[in-house]
Amino acid sequence: MALSLSSLRSSKSTNPPVITLYGVDGIGKTSLAAEFPDAIYLPTDGERTPEGVELPTPGTIESFAALLDVFGELLTTDHEFKTVIVDSLDGLEPLVWAATSARLGVESIEAPGYGRGYVEADGEWNESRCW
User: How many CB atoms lie within 10 A of CB 41?
Assistant: First the structure.
């Protein structure tokens, strides 16, 4: 099948991009994301804004419910933000596990038995998706 340049059409999407930056600590993932338009910074425990980067933040996200609250507010109120930086997914995972454990009434994600806690955590994440 030959390509006809006259038949090309636009592939422009009106949906905002969702980008995951993955890499080792200290290589500039957050610094890069800070260059995106009108960013808000949502750090998890142990994360810190890179030196020389100033971003608005509500402070450290200490629970999965707190993250969902921030997302809910961003989705339902007028604001200037166009970029959300969650730093980091490695820090977010234990928050999802804690929320799942609390919902199941167990002490840890591994308490329900072989793999069940992690399967439940996947459900927690997917059912709470607000993006």
Answer: 21
Determine, yes or no, domain membership for 7.
Answer: no
Cα within 13 Å of Cα(113), Cβ side: 1
Q: Which pLDDT tens digit goes with each residue over 17-63? A: 889 999 998 899 999 999 999 999 999 998 888 889 999 999 999 99
Q: Which helix (H) or strand (E) is 9 found in, with range? A: none
Count up the domains in the chain and report the number.
Answer: 1
Count CB atoms within 10 A of the CB of residue 95. Answer: 18
Tell me which residue range forms the domain holding 122.
25-127
SS3 label, residue 122: helix
Dihedral sign (CA 66, 71, 76, 77): positive
